[in-house]
């Protein structure tokens, strides 16, 4: 959990103080302006997945069909074609590292899907493009005893997981593009995971490691009670709540 947010009792504590009320106002402004800077303020209020909304009021504020920018860390180093690297390790025939150029040179898959955070916000019909995770697993050669995949981020904190079966789906991408161009830094670029059938928390940002494992190792939010199998509509979500 982000140190700055945790150390702020007004935000992490239960009482709804003045700062939270101010935050509600900022949230409304974010919906109108949609700017990255204002939205960072919004996510500071909401918390990475809205768990600092003790009243539930924040979830009722109409903020439109726009993305929030989430990070559990205060800052994340920037990486680009010059220094980006994705390592595929663990229970594979051959460990291998990819540069951004190498990922771009592989066959690309494009999907247009809604993006849904478990807290209730949803962005309709987002375009995603990138390398099928299955292709990277095949290239590495998954060993017989492998059952799952663990993902790590170069933010140094966030982790995620999938079963091998989930990881091999044709709607799970190592995404290089999102919306209308390359995945921006704030959205987890240059490379993030995109797990189309599951809630947003499965789509790890700033992807740097894919480790093939013998069993599922629950990810960052899963250690805090969110479903490991984060299927949209089937696990601890609010997407059937029209106000959510
Ligand atoms: N590294 C990292 N990945 C992350 C998160 C995060 O805080 N850090 N938040 C997750 C959650 S809860 C959601 S809803 C999406 C949000 O993606 P966005 O910031 O591009 O809107 O990223 C997911 N991936
Ligand atoms: Mo989320």
TrEMBL record:
Residue ranges of every copy of the Oxidoreductase molybdopterin-binding domain listed in the record: 75-221
Signal peptide: none
InterPro entries: OxRdtase_Mopterin-bd_dom, OxRdtase_Mopterin-bd_sf
Superkingdom field: Bacteria
SUPFAM superfamilies associated with the record: Oxidoreductase molybdopterin-binding domain
Entry protein name: Molybdopterin-dependent oxidoreductase
Organism: Nocardia aurea
Organismal lineage: Bacteria, Bacillati, Actinomycetota, Actinomycetes, Mycobacteriales
């Amino acid at each position: 959990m982000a140190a700055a947010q945790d150390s702020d009792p007004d935000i992490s504590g239960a009482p709804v103080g003045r700062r939270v009320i101010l935050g509600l106002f900022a949230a409304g402004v974010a919906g109108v302006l949609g700017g990255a800077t204002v939205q960072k303020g919004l996510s500071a209020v909401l918390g990475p997945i809205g768990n600092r909304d003790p009243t539930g009021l924040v979830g009722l504020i109409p903020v439109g069909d726009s993305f929030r920018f989430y990070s559990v860390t205060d800052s994340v180093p920037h990486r680009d074609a010059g220094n980006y690297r994705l390592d595929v390790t663990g229970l594979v025939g051959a460990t291998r590292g990819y540069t951004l150029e190498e990922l771009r040179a592989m066959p690309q898959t494009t999907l247009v899907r809604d993006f849904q955070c478990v807290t209730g916000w949803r962005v309709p019909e987002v375009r995603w493009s990138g390398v099928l995770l299955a292709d990277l697993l095949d290239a590495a050669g998954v060993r017989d005893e492998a059952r799952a995949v663990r993902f790590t981020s170069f933010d140094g904190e966030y982790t995620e997981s999938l079963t091998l079966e989930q990881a091999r789906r044709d709607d799970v991408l190592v995404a290089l593009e999102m919306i209308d161009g390359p995945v921006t830094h704030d959205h987890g670029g240059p490379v993030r995971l995109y797990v189309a059938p599951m809630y947003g928390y499965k789509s790890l940002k700033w992807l740097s490691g894919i480790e093939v494992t013998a069993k599922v190792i629950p990810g960052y939010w899963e250690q805090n009670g969110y479903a490991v199998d984060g299927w949209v509509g089937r696990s601890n979500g609010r997407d059937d709540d029209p106000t959510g």
